[in-house]
């Protein structure tokens, strides 16, 4: 399945990229055990060794690979290596599940329109690394999570889905972020399954289900 072709037979192959504990990866692993979900995780990649995300994949019998920036002469070389490592598994979709590196031009050229990420705010408001903090500082009464395709900008890709989280008067950045994470994980699982089963088209900034 490309972003304009829903003819690929289910289950749709995914590569999931992680940098930490892998709680979102675990939600995808759990969902994929249901044959009606329509997805098979063919590999899990990471930018560092020894993380729980890789251990979760190992326990589930999913192949893993590590591509560290420090093992390459520069960021461009790392980007090319990551592109090759992911391409080996021939995924229809690439999922950023707490992956803390910015994907470069080589990766976007190969997988553009097929990379899905989430952000803990209602884009286009509060993009970047401090979306929860920025929303709280701004005094908004609702924030939430966004599931979007990745493009060359910072949290600027076409929006797939958004879900709202109310801001409580006594919220801290930590308490608000924890509530957003719960919504964010569930939304990503729903979006990935829906895109896989229905297919989709990207029409400018519009994501249309059913190719």
How can the largest sheet be summarized? 7 strands, mixed
Question: CATH architecture of the largest domain, please?
Answer: 3-Layer(aba) Sandwich
| Lateral strand order in the biggest sheet | 3-2-1-4-5-6-7
Shape: globular
Element-by-element helix/strand order: EHEHEHEHEHEEHEE
Low-pLDDT windows of residues? none
Describe the structure.
This protein has 6 helices and 9 strands. By secondary structure, the protein is α/β, with parallel strands linked by helices. The chain has helices spanning 23-32, 52-59, 75-87, 105-111, 131-138, 173-198, and strands at 12-18, 39-46, 64-66, 93-96, 115-119, 142-149, 159-166, 200-203, 206-209. It is 34% helix and 24% strand. It folds into 2 domains: 9-111, Formyl transferase, N-terminal domain (Rossmann fold), CATH 3.40.50; 118-198, Formyl transferase, N-terminal domain (Rossmann fold, 3-Layer(aba) Sandwich).
């Amino acid at each position: 399945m490309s972003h304009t072709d829903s003819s690929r037979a289910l289950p749709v192959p995914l590569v999931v990229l992680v940098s930490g504990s892998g709680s979102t990866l675990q939600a995808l692993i759990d969902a994929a055990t249901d044959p009606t979900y329509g997805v098979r995780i063919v590999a899990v990649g990471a930018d560092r060794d020894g993380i729980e995300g890789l251990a979760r994949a190992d326990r589930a019998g999913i192949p893993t690979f590590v591509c560290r920036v420090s093992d390459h002469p520069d960021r461009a070389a790392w980007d090319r290596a990551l592109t090759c490592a992911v391409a080996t598994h021939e995924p229809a979709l690439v999922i950023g599940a707490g992956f803390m590196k910015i994907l470069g031009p080589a990766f976007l050229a190969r997988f553009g329109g097929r990379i899905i990420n989430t952000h803990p705010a209602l884009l286009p408001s509060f993009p970047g690394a401090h979306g929860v903090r920025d929303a709280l500082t701004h005094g908004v009464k609702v924030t939430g999570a966004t599931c979007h395709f990745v493009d060359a900008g910072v949290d600027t890709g076409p929006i797939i889905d958004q879900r709202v989280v109310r801001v409580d008067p006594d919220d801290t950045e930590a308490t608000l972020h924890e509530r957003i994470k719960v919504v964010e994980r569930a939304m990503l699982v729903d979006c990935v399954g829906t895109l896989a089963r229905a297919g989709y088209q990207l029409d400018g900034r519009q994501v249309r289900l059913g190719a």
